[in-house]
Amino acid sequence: MSASIGRRDLVLLTLAAASWGVGTVVSKRAVEEIPPFTLLPIQLAASLAVLLVLMLVSGMPLRGSPPILSRLGILNPGIAYALGLAGLTWISASLSVLLDSEGFDVGDLLPDESGVPLRIKSLDAFPSPPHTPRAVDGNLKTRWSGGVQRAAADFTIELEQPEHVGQLVISLGEFATDFAIRLRLEVSPDGSQWETVYLGDSALHAYYAAIRHPKEIPLVYPIGRDNVRFIRMRQLGWGTHDWSIAEVRVLN
């Protein structure tokens, strides 16, 4: 015996999904102005007010539910919403929705490190160009730093010769929170004509790197381009942590 879903039910399900998505976008905008743990009680109070009105209008009793239900509310929406709002301070609204979606594994989009390291000819950066050798000294306790992420910074790699580049790997090591909030990756065959291969957040890359390799925390950025000699990273975000590179590798 099969059951069918009526048109009204489909409309209501669609509206519920749309409300969830819109709510995440609104929350993302809100946490840019209001600390997440201040925003949480505001959101919960507004939700309770709406539910109270609906219950009064429909004639539902305000008492009578098992006490265990109120205790479960501490977990969800309490702790679950609090962690969700805190996470929104680091990742985009769209990624938050995908992470919450059952059956979706964002890790499939962010592969682990694979390939053979290519030889690096030179490094350049702004600011702190003299410190760029720290990013290839094999020591996860040293770093190149672009400073606090309140101004643009860039880091450029020159390979010994044009190559096929499969991945760029940035290891954070002991500087786990120093990933670029918003990163642009560009590649070039000659240092004059550039192609953007990635523009976006790095929080999810850092999350999977920390889960897979907690000591090194290697952020993996797929590139997949031929005839690449120059790779330029530009930090374009705004935050309270430094942008740091403990080690950097280019893989074929």
Kindly describe this structure.
The strands form 2 sheets. Strands 1, 3, 4, 5, 6 and 8 form a 6-stranded antiparallel beta sheet that branches. The protein has a two-stranded antiparallel ribbon with strand order 2-7. The protein is an alpha+beta fold and 252 residues long. A hairpin with a 6-residue loop joins β4 and β5 (195-201). The N and C termini lie far apart (55 Å). The mean pLDDT is 86. The protein folds into 2 domains: 7-104, no CATH class; 115-251, Sandwich (Jelly Rolls), CATH 2.60.120. It contains 5 helices and 8 strands; from the N terminus they run ααααβββββαβββ. It is elongated. It has helices spanning 7-31, 36-58, 67-88, 93-100, 203-212, and strands spanning 120-126, 144-148, 153-171, 182-188, 195-201, 218-235, 242-245, 247-251.
Give the topology, please.
Elements: H1 7-31, H2 36-58, H3 67-88, H4 93-100, E1 120-126, E2 144-148, E3 153-171, E4 182-188, E5 195-201, H5 203-212, E6 218-235, E7 242-245, E8 247-251
Antiparallel strand pairs: 1-3, 2-7, 3-6, 3-8, 4-5, 4-6
